[in-house]
Amino acid sequence: GALPVNDNESTHALDRRHVFHSWSVQGALDPMVIAGGEGSTVWDFDGRRYLDFSSQLVNVNIGHQHPRIVEAIREQAGRLTTVAPAHANDMRGEAAARITAHAPDGFDKVFFTNGGADANENAIRMARLVTGRDKVISRYRSYHGNTGAAIVATGDWRRVSNEYATGHVHAFGPYLYRSEFWATTPEQECERALQHLERIVQCEGPSTVAAILLETIPGTAGVLVPPPGYLAGVRAIADRYGILLILDEVMAGFARAGEWFAFDAEGLVPDLVTFAKGVNSGYVPVGGVLISDRVARHFDDRMFPGGLTYSGHPLAAASIVASIDAMEQEGIVEHAAEIGRSHLGPGLAALAAKHEVIGEVRGRGVFWAVELVSDAETREPVTAAWMGRLKGELLQRGVLPFTADNRLHVVPPAVVTPAEVATGLQVVDETLAALA
Ligand code: PLP
């Protein structure tokens, strides 16, 4: 039988023997052992502590082991651990009501999934059924999840070996630092990115396009905060051609960008919203689609041909209720915005002024990317080997980072304290100095 494993070495050995990892060459893995955590800190079995500037996979927005959420899961486990999706369950209803309470007017229904990928999968399906069209336009710099349509909607390298779904088209979005549009101002970048998108709609044939699917703020692609007016411009294009707008808030939502939904700050309302990660900080796997009344009405007298055994699982639902209540009562969304405004934003700007390797810093809330370049003029990205050294040195100094391509993403839990931000940024400062 299996014995409890409680040291770094045996945990690592057991993992290497039996666990098949995501997105990895299995023989080249050397996973870091994590035994426990609290708030913005995690530790291994030797008691080595790390400031979690990754929030794991940018999902532990409320911090590790928040006592109210742990207790809510425990309590629900004692009452009813599982229930079929066809039944009405109090916690599932409460969770859906908590989510719609933070949505714009005209969003009253939630379809729960197991995570973010299948949230996008089902949102795409709804858009296709409502419009009677099949194409989905998404962006090259995006990640939407690892299932049939979601991975083909994805814009990064992870799509390329997985292209089995049909009806997907990609466009470039605004990204002034590496502009695809020869733009030199945010206004130009915005205008040209919108023109490019509208031309793609026209050339694909507007009557074939069901949805435009965008991350409100592309996350893993580099925390690409859109220029003012871009998303409202996309909304206008969608309206002009009868296309539904799906905003993927899986990473950006629930305090990450300093808002309940990142689009709250952008002056537009989508037709469908997908969520996961921060909705319950991953304490139990869950995601979902927030459905506007316009889309929901379509299924009032037609079947929705889709479902999941664990749709609205009671343990997930209980953790959502507790998480949203804690975020409200403890002011966590406002705290995240303030951390961005007064601590991470100014702190990272100071580092950028000091270290030539920092090409650009962008973000808001607890959602930031630091773009690292070997040449400030040409913006040549630093190498993968350099990024490997950065990661190793940060870990040595007690900071667990999130890195992607040539970027350090500074994405701590939304409950991170000003003191923890100061400590983490000092470690980044020292590490960049050491690597210079
Ligand atoms: N959408 C976005 C924006 C994401 O960042 C992710 C995950 O990183 C997903 C979708 C997929 O979510 P999941 O891994 O829960 O399926």
UniProtKB/TrEMBL annotation:
Output the SUPFAM superfamilies linked to this UniProt entry.
PLP-dependent transferases (SSF53383)
**Pfam families per the record?**
Aminotran_3
Q: Can you name one GO molecular function term for this protein?
A: pyridoxal phosphate binding
Checking PROSITE patterns in the record gives: AA_TRANSFER_CLASS_3 (PS00600)
Q: Carries keyword Transcription regulation?
A: no
Task: Alphabetically list the UniProt keywords.
Answer: Pyridoxal phosphate
CC terms in the record's Gene Ontology section: cytosol
Query: Does the keyword Nucleotide-binding belong to this entry?
Result: no
Family statement drawn from the similarity comment of this UniProt entry: Belongs to the class-III pyridoxal-phosphate-dependent aminotransferase family.
Protein name (database record): Taurine--2-oxoglutarate transaminase
Biological source species: Terracoccus luteus
What is the organism lineage in this UniProt record?
Bacteria, Bacillati, Actinomycetota, Actinomycetes, Micrococcales
